[in-house]
Amino acid sequence: MWLTSSSCVQLLIYFFIQVLALCDHPSILDKSETQGLFSADSIERAFQIIDQIPGRATGAYSHSQGIKGLRDQIAAGIEARDGFPADPNDIFLTDGASPAVHMMMQLLIRSEKDGILCPIPQYPLYSASIALHGGTLVPYYLDEEAGWGLEISDLKNQLETARSKGVCVRALVVINPGNPTGQVLAEDNLKQIVEFCKKEGLVLLADEVYQENIYVPDKQFHSFKKVARSMGYGEKDLSLVSFQSVSKGYYGECGKRGGYMEVTGFSPEVREQIYKMASVNLCSNISGQILASLVMNPPKVGDESYESYSAEKDAILSSLAKRAQKLEEALNSLEGVTCNRAEGAMYLFPRIRLPKKAIEAAEAVKTSADTFYARRLLNATGVVVVPGSGFGQVPGTWHFRCTILPQEDRIPAIVSRLTEFHQEFMDEFRD
Amino acid sequence: MWLTSSSCVQLLIYFFIQVLALCDHPSILDKSETQGLFSADSIERAFQIIDQIPGRATGAYSHSQGIKGLRDQIAAGIEARDGFPADPNDIFLTDGASPAVHMMMQLLIRSEKDGILCPIPQYPLYSASIALHGGTLVPYYLDEEAGWGLEISDLKNQLETARSKGVCVRALVVINPGNPTGQVLAEDNLKQIVEFCKKEGLVLLADEVYQENIYVPDKQFHSFKKVARSMGYGEKDLSLVSFQSVSKGYYGECGKRGGYMEVTGFSPEVREQIYKMASVNLCSNISGQILASLVMNPPKVGDESYESYSAEKDAILSSLAKRAQKLEEALNSLEGVTCNRAEGAMYLFPRIRLPKKAIEAAEAVKTSADTFYARRLLNATGVVVVPGSGFGQVPGTWHFRCTILPQEDRIPAIVSRLTEFHQEFMDEFRD
């Protein structure tokens, strides 16, 4: 039983799946049997997409930024989301968000003297990518007491400390909604971050892949681009890269490897280098490109699939919200465990106060206390969580990440196994 | 009119397309209408594939090396091709061959002191990747007089020269069949290369993406693995990486971004690092993975689709052979142009002896003579070729690369435009 990643979950939006299948095999589009198998609007959408592809087939390389017609749809989706213009020429379609992050890191990092400000805890893609490209990770701590908020004064301290050591800090990574921490940053906090990046001349790398995953009524997603534009900041004021993926949201199509980055506020010379980097691998996969366009331009009111699409989407999101709440409550009821709300994303990141004896037992087998706990949990129950050490945490504190992705009907069993294990673990090691 | 890349061509194998569409939308597999739209064996194959995927859907991340059941099929395909065992655990499925090449370069190159032996002319993915990862390209020249063969004595000279400059040469890249040069290396030549790599302790990076593209009866493809095993060399004798792609061959599904590398002869410690690199991007796209398995395990005699599949494949390959021959003849009939046979791959790389006046005219506009010629050709005729400078060539010689991919019925028009342009160009600049 896995509480680690979205590999265990199948979120399914049939409209998306239908369009993808039709685009793979467009010669069935006008067959009569197709109408019995596919919705009218999925057939229509597939026709529209195929018409936008030179050669009317998905088998050829595309433009290295992605098929222009699909980028048009994505830009329109961003405009509809933000209320500010988006330019299809700013969109780079990618095989998921990870290669996009690597691409930006490769462009930003020249040597170990170049630093990237990263949240701690962070999704380890960032530490891995910075290490791979030979740069320096400059950590800033998210404030657990403040619901994993981002404290600008800490950011500033870390920046100055790094600079005093001769590190040229080039960019700030913000993951919103947070991974592994599940928080949704407040609009005021986003404004402070924009202001900070502008003032300090930092590229803002905005990991916004969980933008559809919000589970609490008092929070909503605001893109950094929207916030910056609403503050009156344009192209010349802020270099901003927003990452989006088809692997998250209510669609969860991880295996399709689709995503994009929207790149704004760079000089033409830098843009040319980004394009050159994108072209080294020719193009991202076309199915992933199509799916990214569907995610940003789903069925609308009046379309044949709209009702089923909405029902699927609502069912998935409300189920995820229920799972988040049930797991959060269960975790908070455990001895020595506190857990912030899962406001968004797909994770909970509870803090666990481990007894001294448990920490010593971990040290005796040369492992960290949270890994010791997680291994014990796995062996005793089959439930997998990821130790906080994998994401970074304030030294001396211990956490683990668990996803909210197990099927709803399996959560009671997971909770009861976890609770029983935790009780026994504490009984064994309690000081 | 493009003679540059496979972006212009649509090679289409319907069996592959059908299986991909069905795997995208497996819930139609058992609908009655599906039998009217899809062949029985494509439905059966899709069932088999879906059964091998945890969760029976293509929406989840896979194992970072790719879905095990698909790797089994690929390994079986390699065994059938080579007559020697292949291990599914040696297969890493990737988003096309390019990311696989980058991954190996990233692992091999620690600093500019690390060198990679690369053919000149070469497909510029290699020079780009070596530059990106901060290494040193150690060139060796293919021998145009010997049909772009690979001269071991030159290889040895280049290796020794590089070593004398303090470069640690770690690997040798061989592209067979050749890009941009179109040669198919003879088996004896492959044996010499294997022997050389073994003796010198070099990793052999074998770009074998054109393994299905052979157009002359006196040549055939031999994989380096088969050659090494037939020489009695096993895991411990040679570190070998073979790259394969779904973008070439008779299938040409460039937009699907599928491919794999077969990695043999590395220690468990190195293997672990390769796996770690692969896992940073989670997994390659599942459609590309499926297609790679289909390419290595196409319909067999007796399958419903076998005849149509064979007919499609033969038609594509024999048409490519005819196009290659027609273009080669046309090029060889031009004043000052000589062109080796296109034995394989998708390219011709004619040498063009440009008049002194043309070289001076190019210098006057600060460009290379081959680029000057290619630009003139483009402006006069709309035909695009790539100047040899993009691939590297013996200094003082000039070439261009043209693909053999234009539709067969368009080739006479292309030839006549090219011939007319060339005549006029030579008339304008003849010494």
UniProtKB/TrEMBL annotation, chains A, B:
Limits of the Aminotransferase class I/classII large domain: 55-407
Origin: domain of life: Eukaryota
Group of enzyme by EC: transferase
Gene3D superfamilies documented for this protein: 1.10.287.1970, Aspartate Aminotransferase, domain 1, Type I PLP-dependent aspartate aminotransferase-like (Major domain)
Organism for this UniProt entry: Dorcoceras hygrometricum
Keyword terms of this UniProt record: Aminotransferase, Pyridoxal phosphate, Signal, Transferase
Any Pfam family: Aminotran_1_2
Name used for this protein in its record: alanine transaminase
Pathway it works in: Photosynthesis; C4 acid pathway; Amino-acid degradation; L-alanine degradation via transaminase pathway; pyruvate from L-alanine: step 1/1
EC number: 2.6.1.2
